[in-house]
UniProtKB/TrEMBL annotation:
Membrane spanning residue stretches: 44-63, 99-116, 166-186, 207-234, 240-264, 271-287, 356-376
Organism: Paractinoplanes ovalisporus
Alphabetical list of SUPFAM superfamilies matching this protein: MFS general substrate transporter
Gene3D superfamilies tied to this protein: MFS general substrate transporter like domains (1.20.1250.20)
Keyword Transmembrane: yes
A Pfam family this chain is assigned to: MFS_1
Keywords carried by this UniProt record: Membrane, Transmembrane, Transmembrane helix
Protein name (database record): MFS transporter
Amino acid sequence: MSGYRQVLAVPGMASLLSVSLLARTAITADVMALTLYVVLGLDLSYAAAGVVAAALTAGVALGGPMLGRLIDARGVRPVLMTTTLVQVAFWLSVPVSPYGILLVSAFAAGLLMVPAQAVTRQAIAALTTADQRRPAFALESVQGELAYIVGPAVVILGAATVSPATVAWGVGAAIVAGGAGLALLNPPVGTSSGETARPPRRQWLNLRMIAALTMALGTTTLLSGVDLAIVAALRESGQVSWAAVVVVVFGVSSVTGGLIYGALTRPRPTWLLLALLGLLTIPAGLAHDWRWLSVAVIGAGLLTAPTLSTVADAVSRLAPDGARGEATGLQSSAQSAGFALGSPLVGLAIDLTTPAGGFATAGLAGLIAALIGYSLSRRARTAAPEHRSQRVAARAALEFRTDPKGGDPGPD
């Protein structure tokens, strides 16, 4: 655990993780808060609530790279202040907006969501040394799992005791408090506005980066699919009320796995962790009782946070300083797209087969993303020596042409 002590001893790290946890917990709960408000507050269908949730999620996915570019160009604080003010306006308007306006404003709010996750990852990369980054990103992944466990549960509990409008205001207040706290901290992200030249995108959005983003997409596609498959499996056995217990077991297993992985001395390839996660997800479909299903998801849970942390670490290493914000935004977009893709993909598989087919589909999605990531990374390693040899040959030819003692340069 000495690695964690070293990370938390880094000036500003403990406060960054604390404030970020507040913001990320609230952001994790925003979809649930809007869903319950549309269903209970506006007395509309779950389908109508799903459209609002999809609009918010689409905005977040599209806004990630845009906000990242703004952070690269303008710095952290202006972006955080702007997005925090947008969230103030949106969440104050939720209880008084008709459905049509709520739908449009939800997309705008997602587009300008407080980039707590992206800022945290950039700051970790800037504040830590190479040896500290793996335990630091493990803590960041554990933070995300805690937010996932706590946020939606608190919203559901709140909706059962107070009005859905009050719950929406509470979630909005927490997002605003987290965004304002991050703006006050103004953590370093490796570059200041105007101080670092922005590299061309073709230099860093290469095969290695595409591999990392593909595996980010595959990981969250798997995870969102597993959530739906758990509910479907227990509904089929008449135990749907125990789904929350299974999800909590899954989340606690992920937290445990993240802490164990961050304490290891040797990292593991992202593609290998994702492939193992996919393989361990498939047999969970054989369990039909909530007790056995709780046991069956432990293996996949132990690999969830480690896989997410290696993806974040890979993106931070591959992104140059002048484009780290955009790269981190692309990672957030890939993960948001995975969350949006996983549920309908696995839902279709469940409708066509059984809940076990849902687990199999989620696991296969992870396996396919791992294989694509491995293939792209291998191609990148193979292409690198060829590019180096071509550059050496071109340099030698140029020197030969310009060397007065080089003799006849020959035909062009």
